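Sharing a chain and its predicted structure for anyone who wants a worked example. Both blocks are below, sequence first, tokens second.
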Amino acid sequence: MSFQVKEPILVIGLGGAGSKLAIQAKDVLNSDCLIISNDQKDIQSGNDSIKVSTDSVINPSVQLIRGAAYKEADQIRSKISKYSTIILMTNLAGKTGSAISPVVSEICKESDKGLISFAIMPFKYEKDRIFNSGISLKRVRANSECTIVLDNDSLLESNPDLSPNTCYSIANNAIMHVVSSLHSSEIPNQTNILTTSKNGQNMEESLRDSLKMLYDNTTPNAVKRSMLYVVGGNNIPVGVINSITNLTNGILGESSSQVDMVSSNESKIVMLSSIQGMTKFEKYDPLGVIPQENTLDWAQPDCSIDYKLDLYQLE
């Protein structure tokens, strides 16, 4: 089945990167926007927002931010109550995104909202962030009707000459291409891997890098369907479009691929592939490879809450 986008739509941005994406998506979709963060710098005037307070702690842990976010659950629930579709923008490499994403997605599921989540995963060298990102992604996938994942590390793996900021820009542009097509394209109700390439390549090279990025995230037999966004397609020769379509059909299967044209000044391939099976992100959590039916887990993710109990040390 495909995800059904129903109006009214609310775009929620978490943290710095998530808030920037949400503001862009709001303009593309002509929807409302909500920013949630524990950092005042992320909250801009002119957009509805919720400040998650960690009181006097200036360098809070993921668990502390998450505990503080649960205190705002009623306010979040009230903000989303009048909307049918929630689009969640989050960078799980960031402390705020990985902390608050499970909370917001859980509230959306409990409120019976149609939730589509866009999640950005960390670079491999960000070792202190990998575990928390894997835990958060597991929760977000379970709470969302549709999850779209873009892996910064596999983008950098395909293009080792890119700087982190360039990777962020490429990732954000790829996400916006998918957002702009939500009203016209069908996205399966499952996990989807979003892949792309750097600018300045010909279309065949862009397709190659997109496929390499995809297979860095999962195995070929796990890919069930792919949507190929030909960015700038109206300015690309029909013969080139036909060539990359035939290449894609030969690799993924003719019945498993679809081509969509996207108007843009740049020319590249953006690929959205639905996955059934394991991805590399399960390995971010050492227990993630264990089947869910054989795992005991908390209904809520780990969080830290200061109950201010007056406990004395006994000597």
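Comments welcome. Strands lie at 9-14, 32-37, 48-51, 85-91, 114-121, 146-151, 191-195, 223-231, 257-262, 268-275.
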